[in-house]
Here is the input.
Amino acid sequence: MMNEAPIPMMKPVSFLSDLNLFIEYCNDFYNKKTGMYPIASRKEIINAIGEYLTEPHEHEIQFDSFDREKVRTILEPSYNWMGVSGGVFGPTIEFTVCEE
Here is the structure.
């Protein structure tokens, strides 16, 4: 018998619930009328989340502040957060090399 790691499976109900909470979370931050940083309509936010979810990811999506900031880079391609800038063509990472 082979020792294989179990494949984690998300329950569809849990995913949809988490997604709806994430939409509200992003809306609280970025909605043009009610958000802390008013940059987009609810429809634009939902579309940006959809684009983000269909992009390849190097990390597991947690629907947290990191994911919210990545959605913001789609909404505002000129926005730069901690050296990561993004937009329609995906994120580019900027590095600074320091010599000792």
Observations:
- Residues 12-30 form the longest helix (19 residues).
- The longest strand covers residues 80-81.
- The radius of gyration is 16 Å.
- The beta strands are 80-81, 84-85, 92-93.
